[in-house]
Amino acid sequence: MLSDSSKKLPKILTTQVVAKSRLFEIQSVDLEFSNGELRTYERFKPGNQQAVMMVPIDGDDLLLIREYSVGTERYELGFPKGGVDKDEEPKDAANRELKEELGLGANKIDFLRTVITNPSYMRSIMHIFVAKDFYPCQLEGDEPEPLEIVRFPLSKIDELLADSSFNEARNLTALYSLKDYLSRK
Asked: Where do the coiled-coil regions begin and end (predicted)?
């Protein structure tokens, strides 16, 4: 395992808001590095919000969802995911999101790994889980339209990795982590 660097962290001189919407706040951060170099960075305001992604396995199939993504302006194929509510454990959030997005709860949820998306600009923590052994349970979610559930053979993971509608980085990380998880079983 690689150890943390012993380098001295840069000193934050000033932080100011440069843009704000109902979802995001962008900050300008003036830094002084240990060698005296001064730089200004921009970032999304750090928060404590975490998210979860589930890799549901039902028998010999993965359960995926097809959902509209405004960033790409098309429907994308991926795993169920969502935010962790205040005072909620990530594993509990994973099961709640499964119920909202798939209409299924899971009796077995195993932690795969935690990833951070784009740490240069934001603190975006996502916990990835494998979910199995389902039971019917539908909770109302926040999606604007019903999600399409797509069954995909677990034996064809490499085809899914090559699918052009399955290209979001966190989904790919989850699938590669799943391959590693399955090789240990």
From this structure: none
